[in-house]
Automatic annotation (TrEMBL):
It comes from Aspergillus heteromorphus CBS 117.55. It comes from the Eukaryota. The keyword Transmembrane applies. GO terms for molecular function: 2 iron, 2 sulfur cluster binding; metal ion binding; oxidoreductase activity. Keywords: 2Fe-2S, Iron, Iron-sulfur, Membrane, Metal-binding, Oxidoreductase, Transmembrane, Transmembrane helix. This is Iron-sulfur cluster-binding protein. CDD domains: Rieske_RO_Alpha_N. Residues 85-171 form the Rieske domain. PROSITE patterns: RIESKE. It holds the Pfam family Rieske.
Length: 428
């Protein structure tokens, strides 16, 4: 049965004032229901329209940020040829003639301790035929000899012997010394070099290193415990995350000292109860170990856009004869290898061009700022090259062009021919 109400029945059932108000309320209710039903449809329509009109913000970084070969060539010119680079610590050199060889972005160099106690850096090429002067990663010798024609150099980089050239008129040994590189050793023993070929060294700010050394007692008296160089298949820029490469767990398993010994050590040596990490731009990080006198450096020296040489060195600010040294060193070696493999796996995901540039935004703020600093240097150097209309190589040495040089060059060619004939006569 359907019950219906007409106007007359409603007027009989309700007082006149209320009867007039009820239809108005019913109409308002229907309007509200219609609005509620239509709102989701309207919102969905607006959302779809907004999505259609949204333009994704492009990354500031080029798509090949992690994999570009041309980008890596620009990095060599804009960064590694112009910026101060941390390479080693004074504690790695104990006697005159001690040397360590490196290759930074295809540029071979070496550090050597002179008889005057000063560490100097030179390009690892003989001025005669650009052959390597040092062939080992490290060694010790007061005289470095090029095996091509026997040119010999002392610890100051000076040419002291040049067979077959003594009779060449006007030949000046002092004009054929090794190419020196700007080198500085801070008061705390940190050794940095700058490959810029200009005669005046670019300015260097050492206060971050000095401040770290002051807080943790790092200095020239630190002893080198050990180290290693390994190669990783990833881009060097991915490593610039101070506590991320080895992770926060790095030294939780270091053997603790006896409580009273630890207390005395803290009282007299002022050992901080916290770890600290800094980036020595562009490719080195330095770390101190919590509640210990140990610290270590990690240098991520680029080999190519997809290969990086990882050099790590463990140091101790006190006596290096502690039995804990070997345990801590082995732990560091294991962690570096583990982290390198993890980074290689991560890098594989960046080799896709669609992910390369956007991956930077996934880093923390500090790391992203470091990447932006690198980008700024690249953009500035690219602008310079555009203005000059050519590529600019700050580390390049200008070749000599004069009559005496041409005469010496002719003698070199004659010696080369003689060597070739000798080799042919022995090739039976």
């Amino acid at each position: 049965m359907v019950i219906t109400f007409d106007k007359e029945m409603l007027s009989l059932a309700l007082p006149p004032a209320i009867a007039v108000f009820v239809p108005v309320v019913l109409l308002a209710g229907l309007a509200l229901l219609f609005q509620a039903w239509s709102r989701p449809l309207l919102n969905a329509s607006l959302h779809e329209e907004n999505e259609a009109n949204v333009v994704a913000k492009e990354s500031d970084f080029p798509a090949d940020w992690w994999v570009g070969s041309n980008l890596f060539e620009l990095e060599k010119r804009a960064i590694f040829s112009k910026r101060w680079l941390y390479l080693s610590h004074r504690s790695r050199f104990s006697k005159a003639g001690d040397y360590h060889s490196y290759e930074v972005a295809d540029i071979p160099i070496f550090l050597i301790l002179g008889k005057d106690g000063v560490v100097r850096a030179f390009h690892n090429v003989c001025r005669h035929r650009a052959y390597a002067v040092t062939r080992k990663e490290c060694g010790s010798s007061l005289v470095l000899r090029c095996r091509y024609h026997g040119w010999s150099f002392n610890t100051y980089g000076q040419l002291v012997k040049a067979p077959h050239f003594d009779h060449v008129p006007g030949f000046d040994k002092s004009q054929n010394d090794l190419f020196a590189i700007h080198t500085t050793t801070t008061n705390s023993g940190f050794i940095l070099v700058n490959l810029d070929a200009s005669t005046i060294a670019p300015p260097l700010e050492t206060w971050p290193l000095d401040s770290l050394a002051s807080r943790h007692g790092l200095g020239r008296r630190s002893s080198w415990v050990g180290g290693q160089t390994i190669e990783g298949q990833f881009n060097w820029k991915m490593c610039l995350r101070p506590r991320k490469f080895l992770g926060g767990e790095a030294w939780e398993h270091a053997p603790p000292k006896r409580s009273y010994m630890l207390l005395l050590s803290r009282l007299f040596n002022k050992i901080p109860n916290y770890p600290e990490d800094i980036i020595v731009f562009p490719f080195t990080t330095i770390h101190t170990l919590k509640r210990t006198t140990y610290w270590y450096s990690l240098s991520f020296i680029p080999i190519s856009e997809k290969r990086t040489s990882i050099r790590f060195d463990l140091h101790c600010t006190r006596d290096s004869s502690s039995p804990n040294h070997l345990i801590i060193l082995e732990g560091l070696i294991g962690l570096v290898n583990k982290s390198s493999r993890a980074l290689e796996a991560e890098y594989q995901s960046y080799t896709d061009d669609s992910k390369s540039a956007t991956a930077v935004s996934a880093f923390d703020t500090s790391t992203e700022n470091t990447q932006k600093e690198i980008l700024g240097l690249l953009q500035a150097h690219a602008k310079l090259e555009k203005q000059q209309g050519t590529e600019v190589f700050p580390a390049m040495r200008q070749p000599r062009q004069n009559a005496r040089y041409e005469q010496a060059e002719q003698l070199c060619k004659e010696l080369d021919c003689q060597d070739a004939l000798n080799r042919q006569s022995l090739a039976w």
